[in-house]
Backbone:
DNA sequence: ACAAACCCTCAAGCTGACTTGAGGGTCAAG
DNA sequence: CTTGACCCTCAAGTCAGCTTGAGGGTTTGT
């Protein structure tokens, strides 16, 4: 048999066909074989790669990073120093985030407990809890992206 | 004195003037007083609110949520049940994320240690670590947003 | 032979949080 | 009274990661 149609792959992975084509278009997936009439034909390998992509995304990797990792693994190579470096930076970022989140969590939980228990909480409770947080170099929402240029206006 | 010009506020907060106008346009900041010639005039209160916004963002709150919180704090009111609810959901989301991140961190650290130590790591190291991760309902990157519709194709 | 259910490409739209550009007014210093 | 550094509005562009639509070919079943 020629292999799976894009719809079969979609079904097996829980993605949509357009999404799979999109991954191909940005180079995260390689171009698959085509039938004589131009239909994409996939193997189980692609299904596995797509599942991998979903997990890596859930873990905070960008499609760009995932693409790099996949390229390496397709070449059967062991992570080169570049990817090792990437991994180290990820680890630091994740550690920082866990710390920030944990601090935040405790403050939030304390504040909520106050609200829940007594009905006369400190004025502007939620404000104080966030206002008391330290300033961070980078937002939590981002893992590892290049620092946004944030021009501090000079006059 | 009439108050700070938008550029002064920008300088004090590290934001840009367009960003501050943008916050106003989406209702996160209230409309400030205007000079006779139409210039925005701000007080120190706005500077504090903007610093608050930055911190809340870094902690994963969306501008919409921040807007709600600020409105409440401006009214000097105690969190109503709606915001209390919001806070509870945040707490759960934060807990989940800490858990996911911690699991991920340990896997990543283990894998990195392998790579760093021996120079003959398991084939496709990074793949295995991510591939071995559990599937998550929602990506780590999101705090509290509505679950993205991710149509699992039915035929 | 025809319809349903696939497949194709290319282009445009979406969300959130901004940035950038065009076109034009204002204000303080020299 | 002009110059330069501000300010204004409104529209459009940016980025990531997709989704949606238009317009058209293919394959499978009856």
Residues:
């Amino acid at each position: 048999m020629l292999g799976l149609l894009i719809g079969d792959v979609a079904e097996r992975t829980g993605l949509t066909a357009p999404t799979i084509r999109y991954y191909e278009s940005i180079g995260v997936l390689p171009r698959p074989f085509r039938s004589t009439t131009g239909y994409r034909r996939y193997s189980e390998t692609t299904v596995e790669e797509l599942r991998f992509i979903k997990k890596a995304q859930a873990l905070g990797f960008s499609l760009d990073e995932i693409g790099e990792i996949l390229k390496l693994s397709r070449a059967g190579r062991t992570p080169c120093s570049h990817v090792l470096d990437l991994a180290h930076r990820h680890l630091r970022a994740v550690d920082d985030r866990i710390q920030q989140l944990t601090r935040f969590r405790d403050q939030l939980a304390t504040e909520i407990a106050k609200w829940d228990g007594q009905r006369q909480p400190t004025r502007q409770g939620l404000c104080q809890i966030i206002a008391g947080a330290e300033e961070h170099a980078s937002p939590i929402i981002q893992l590892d992206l290049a620092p946004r240029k944030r021009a501090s206006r000079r006059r």
Notes: Chain B has a mean pLDDT of 71. Residues 5-7, 17, 21, 35, 37-40, 148-149 of chain B lie near DNA strand D (CB under 10 Å from a C1'). The helical segments of chain B are 6-13, 17-25, 44-58, 63-74, 81-117, 125-131.
